[in-house]
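Please supply some protein, with fold tokens.
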Amino acid sequence: MSDFTTLPDLALRSYRAAVVAASDESFEERENLIHPWEPRFSAETFGPKGQEYDGWETRRRRSLGHDWAVIRLGMPGVIRGVVIDTAWFKGNYPPFASVEAARISGYPTVAELDSADWVEIVPRSPLTGDTRHEIPVADERIFTHVRLNIHPDGGVARLRVHGEVTPDPALLTGLTIDLAALENGAGITGCSNWFYSAPNNMLAPGLARNQAEGWETARRRDDGNDWAVVRLAAQGIPDLIELDTTNLVFNSPGEFRVLGIDHAGDDALPPADGDEWFELLPRTSVQPDTPHRFRLAQDARRPVTHVRVDIYPDGGIARLRILGSLSVSGAEALTRRWNAR
């Protein structure tokens, strides 16, 4: 994908990532690196350590070496690009940075991370102040942790690590799971509109805290309706659909419908009116600011790889959940993907 920033940010705090260690955080805390919001700044806001910044800032080094921060990704995956954002750091940004990554099973301690097999995915690269540096990554391996190195010191507002989620199949096989969860490897392959917020938001972990943390479209002025196609984690058999309109008090859809398809490819799906699509849930009324749950009819519990959610005519969805289990073929596909990288 040419614009890797449309992929999920694997290092986002709201996606359960964490900054587990840093060489120094004398001026500003390491946790600021992975906040979901854009960096903020208020001029002449001074605390006991000087001007306050919404980022990670280390002291001025008076010795050899460089500063670093280790992030445990909220979701393991193949990294397609990183964004090193020095927003508002104009006289105190690092002149260079590099990024390393590692794949470590289980829940390693900081000491275990230090001795891990780290590989460089972004070589030492020049930075400028108050700038978003978008750097593509060409490495097909799955990673669970990244290490941001700044040379020699300074401040970075945000680190974004965009990629393709690749879950551990051992944690999904044989269980009832959310087949549409971003953290399980699901994703959006197409949608009609994302004027206010992106459709991947409705697949995110946890509950939406406000309207912006879901998917919301512009107001339609024609006879059509909005829709989104979700590639499930792998082929699975759905049992229950949850559509949550929490926080959408005056802009929820009036109705929605869900179709399914068992499709070998990830994209290039036939149109929604094609014969291959079948109905998982018929056109159904929904209420504002409400979580809705619908058990599927027995004849709808069949293998699917993608679902299409139609909303009528427009509006927003806070969260979409497709609860079910992986098929044998789906579990095998996930295992191959996990072991191949």
User: Anything to note?
Assistant: The mean pLDDT is 94. Residues 169-332 form a domain with the Jelly Rolls fold (CATH 2.60.120.260). The first helix runs from residue 110 to 114.
